[in-house]
């Protein structure tokens, strides 16, 4: 069967399209894996990688800058993750940078997030360096704690419901107070009496203050208050005089000690 020229053209087009798709796929995959860029490798050690897989992205400042190259189990509580990064970001990543595991969106793939560092070191990372790792939260432990909190909240809610039921049925002191009109009236009467007593005390205090002021201006008692005032002033004056004497004595003692010291220095 002879092949016509139109069939040859179709075959040629299919071959060309296939090659274009192949090269495009190689370019996209190579660009994602940084195959066409100069790269360097760093690592981090985690207790749990939470589903991180080889080939997942490495993100720095919100930009994909590399991939997870390899994941190796070192021990039952240690997992080493090797990262291949674009060489262009090396100058921005410092020795004290940290690596952590995040998610690409709420339910997206796991990825590695690099913090730039620079707080305690300004030296940039080198090929093969191991950065400090921030271990992800243990979701199972968090869910366990939330479950216990929910159980406790349910118990508290049940207890409060029982208390409110007892109050509604008139049980307990509060229930009897709410449902017993006589107790409520007695309580109101007690509160009213207490208010009246407080008012009377306040009024008596004002009256006593006014009586004292009047007594001070009274001719017969004026001498008594003057004596009290004079005694108070004399007491203050004595304290001031004694303080002055003590101060003068301390100054004299200091001068005397200084002279004796000067005399001793001259003799030496």
From TrEMBL:
TM region(s), chain numbering: 12-30
InterPro entries: Mce/MlaD, MlaD_Phospholipid_Transporter
Swiss-Prot/TrEMBL keywords: Membrane, Transmembrane, Transmembrane helix
Any Pfam family the entry gives: MlaD
Ranges where the Mce/MlaD domain occurs: 41-117
Annotated region (Disordered), positions in chain: 230-268
Biased composition (Basic and acidic residues): 231-268
Domain of life: Bacteria
Keyword Transmembrane helix: yes
Sections of the chain in a coiled coil: none
Keyword Transmembrane: yes
Stored PANTHER family: INTERMEMBRANE PHOSPHOLIPID TRANSPORT SYSTEM BINDING PROTEIN MLAD, INTERMEMBRANE PHOSPHOLIPID TRANSPORT SYSTEM BINDING PROTEIN MLAD-RELATED
Name of the protein this chain belongs to: MCE family protein
Organism of derivation: Mucilaginibacter agri
Lineage: Bacteria, Pseudomonadati, Bacteroidota, Sphingobacteriia, Sphingobacteriales
């Amino acid at each position: 069967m002879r092949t016509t020229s139109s069939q040859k053209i179709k075959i040629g087009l299919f071959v060309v399209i296939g090659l274009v798709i192949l090269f495009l796929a190689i370019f996209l995959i190579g660009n994602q894996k940084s195959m066409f860029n100069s790269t360097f490798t760093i690592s981090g050690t985690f207790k749990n990688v939470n589903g991180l897989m080889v080939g997942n992205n490495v993100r720095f400042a919100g930009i994909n800058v590399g991939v997870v190259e390899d994941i190796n189990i070192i021990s039952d509580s240690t997992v080493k993750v090797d990262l291949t990064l674009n060489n262009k970001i090396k100058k921005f990543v410092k020795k004290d940078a940290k690596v952590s595991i995040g998610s690409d969106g709420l339910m997206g793939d796991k990825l590695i997030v690099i913090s730039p560092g620079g707080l305690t070191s300004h030296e940039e990372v080198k090929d093969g360096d191991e950065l400090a790792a921030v271990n992800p939260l243990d979701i199972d432990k968090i869910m366990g704690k939330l479950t216990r909190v929910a159980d406790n909240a349910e118990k508290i809610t049940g207890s409060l419901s029982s208390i409110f039921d007892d109050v509604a049925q008139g049980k307990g002191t509060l229930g009897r107070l709410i449902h017993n009109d006589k107790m409520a009236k007695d309580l109101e009467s007690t509160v009213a009496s207490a208010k009246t007593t407080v008012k009377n005390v306040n009024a008596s205090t004002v009256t006593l203050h006014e009586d004292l002021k009047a007594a001070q201006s009274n001719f017969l008692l004026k001498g008594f208050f003057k004596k009290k005032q004079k005694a108070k002033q004399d007491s203050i004056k004595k304290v001031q005089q004694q303080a002055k004497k003590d101060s003068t004595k301390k100054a004299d003692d200091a001068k005397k000690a200084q002279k004796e010291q000067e005399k001793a220095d001259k003799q030496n």
